[in-house]
Write a structure and sequence with these properties.
Strand content: under 5%
Shape: elongated
Structural class: mainly alpha
Largest sheet: 2 strands, antiparallel
Distance between the termini: 150 Å
Number of strands: 2
């Protein structure tokens, strides 16, 4: 049965995700010997051929809701092919729904132009084209171009040259019939949908061996499709990893540049502080302490000798101090007086 078969598609999938399975020459998994009629459970190999099955409600219910809404939306914007070539529904029609928010360069405001504005636009286009013809030919008698006719220029379109338009091209091939173009695209869409459903029926119901067969024949294409054409890897290499590289560069600039400058300024401040502290402690304080030590060594014996405990000695020291102070303050005047007297 199909549950027993581990086909080429499964082997390619296993290799693509790094889970290569041991298979025999017939393509069967050597570990997969369980009863095909036994329900899947614990102990069975988790891999095997994928059998078509109904999706859970969490998958098909949203799709059904979208299908119903799409059908309703289709009737709101029903094709002119079903309405005699007319867009029925007025403002509810999808063709007219977005008109109020689409900018119209012909009128200089939002929305579709009125019939009077269309006539004025055509007259303006004719006038502009006529003046251009007069300028090129150097004569005011140059014929004005009309809307149609051989040898005459058509007035410029309100929106300019919009490039190739498939719908307009098909409509031109079908003789300019808008309804014929609508029916053409309706038939093509139905044929494409029918072809997809037919291929699904053929591959997964009528001949379920075809997927493995074509997966083997188109292994390179199958691998590319299975790996989503390596778009994620390419995106990761071009954008995700480059963004991470940019983040690392910004982090390096922030941590080593900006933070480095701040930390360097802090380090320099600490070094200057240490230098200032050492200068104050070793130079300034050293000089003060040296002078104090020198005075101590010089004056201490004298002062210690005067401290005998005898009042007469203290009085003598006081008198000597007064004499010294008198000499310091008045010695210069005394010397000047003595020198002048001589």
């Amino acid at each position: 049965g199909p549950e027993e078969r581990v086909g080429v598609a499964h082997v390619l999938e296993a290799e693509a995700v790094g889970e290569a399975e041991a298979t025999d020459t017939r393509g069967h998994d050597v570990h997969d010997h369980h009863d095909p009629h036994e329900p899947a459970g614990h102990g069975q190999h988790p891999h095997g051929s994928v059998v078509p099955h109904e999706s859970p409600p969490s998958m098909w219910v949203p799709l059904a809701v979208l299908a119903v809404l799409a059908t309703v939306g289709g009737f709101v914007g029903i094709s002119p092919a079903f309405a005699g070539g007319q867009h029925v529904g007025g403002r509810l029609n999808i063709v007219n729904w977005l008109d109020p928010v689409i900018w119209n360069p012909a009128t200089g405001r939002f929305g579709k132009e009125t019939s009077a504005e269309v006539t004025a636009l055509e007259e303006r286009n004719k006038s502009v084209a006529g003046r251009e013809a007069v300028r090129q030919e150097g004569s005011r008698e140059a014929p004005l171009p009309t809307e149609s006719g051989e040898g005459h220029a058509e007035p410029p379109l309100p929106y300019g040259d919009t490039g190739f338009n498939l719908a307009h091209a098909v409509q031109g091939v079908l003789g300019g019939s808008h309804a014929a173009a609508e029916w053409f695209f309706i038939v093509v869409s139905l044929l494409a949908a029918g072809l997809g459903m037919g291929l699904g029926y053929l591959f997964y119901i009528r001949k379920p061996e075809l997927p493995d067969l074509w997966a083997a024949r188109l292994s390179s294409l199958y691998r590319a499709s299975f790996n989503k054409y390596w778009i994620d890897e390419l995106y990761g290499a071009l954008f995700t990893r480059r963004t991470m590289d940019a983040a690392r560069a910004v982090n390096a600039v922030d941590s080593k540049g900006i933070d480095g400058a701040v930390n360097g300024a802090a380090w320099l401040t600490r070094q200057l502080s240490r230098f200032t502290g050492n200068t104050d402690r070793l130079v300034v304080d050293g000089a003060v302490n040296g002078i104090a030590g020198f005075i101590k060594l010089l004056m201490s014996p004298l002062l210690r000798a005067a401290q005998t405990g005898v009042t007469a000695n203290y009085a003598l020291v006081m008198i000597l101090g007064l004499v010294a102070a008198f000499g310091i303050y008045f010695g210069k005047d005394i010397l000047a007086a003595i020198t002048g007297a001589r």
